Amino acid sequence: MKIISASFVKGAVNAAQFPATGIPEFAFFGRSNAGKSSLINMLLNRKNLVKTGSKPGMTREINFFAVNTPNGAASSGSGNGFFIADLPGYGYAQVSGVMRDRIDKMLYEYCRHRDVLRTLFFLMDIRRKPTEVERNSLEFFHSCGIKTQLVATKADKVGKNDQRKQLTAWADFFQCNKDEIIPTSSSKKLGRDKLLTCIVSQLSS
Ligand code: GTP
Ligand code: MG
Would you say the CB of residue 63 lies under 6 angstroms from ligand 1? Predict the structure, then answer.
């Protein structure tokens, strides 16, 4: 699939602000600094569509992007359009308690009520070891009936051997097949085809 257009639609801080679209949506979720915004830029072939940062906690609202929809309009006649939601990261200690509660509530509402959501891409830095936080989050998504796809980010930061070792350890932890995890690197443009294939396969369903 070619990315013909991609544009920022809006940032939302509560469910009332989520755009009414009626077309498939794909969400990107993960710890602060995992590389969500960078991966969206890589996927959409845009350098700076989504703001990224070396400081964790850059994204504190849900940012919606329209892809391949005429003029960025919410509804697409071609059946080739979709939305992307860049979700705020978790695990950033310097985000205040009040802000954290607000973000958690917003994520909860998003997961519970976003009918157009087709797949939630669950991103983790390939160098990290998954914890109960990740396990519980995945369980919550599944309890909401959300399909998830594990994505390992920043694969360029480790050699091939360590990459394999990490994916094997993750597969063991999450009780899945290691080949089900998509390794990616935004800087090396690795994994883009697999992500796009996953999206395309769900556009007409
Ligand atoms: P929050 O919005 O804070 O939740 O962060 P995020 O998950 O959106 O991460 P972001 O894309 O802003 O990236 C965080 C940092 O990691 C930035 O300094 C990026 O340049 C860096 N980074 C992201 N992806 C990659 C990658 O594939 N390889 C390398 N080497 N660095 C990356
Ligand atoms: Mg971000």
Answer: no
CA of 38 to the centre of ligand 1 (A): 5
**For residue 52, how many C-alpha atoms fall within 13 Å in the half-sphere facing its CB?**
17
pTM to 2 decimal places: 0.93
- 13-35 pLDDT, tens digit per residue, is 889 999 999 999 999 999 988 99
Ligand 1 atom index nearest CA of 34? 7
Q: Whose CA is nearest to atom 24 of ligand 1?
A: 35
For ligand 1, is residue 57 a contact (CB within 6 Å)? Answer: yes
∠ Cα 143 115 2 (to 5°): 110
pLDDT at residue 103 above 90? no
- Is the pLDDT reported for residue 147 higher than 70? yes
Residues whose CB falls within 8 Å of the CB of residue 47, separated by 6 or more in sequence, listed in order: 41
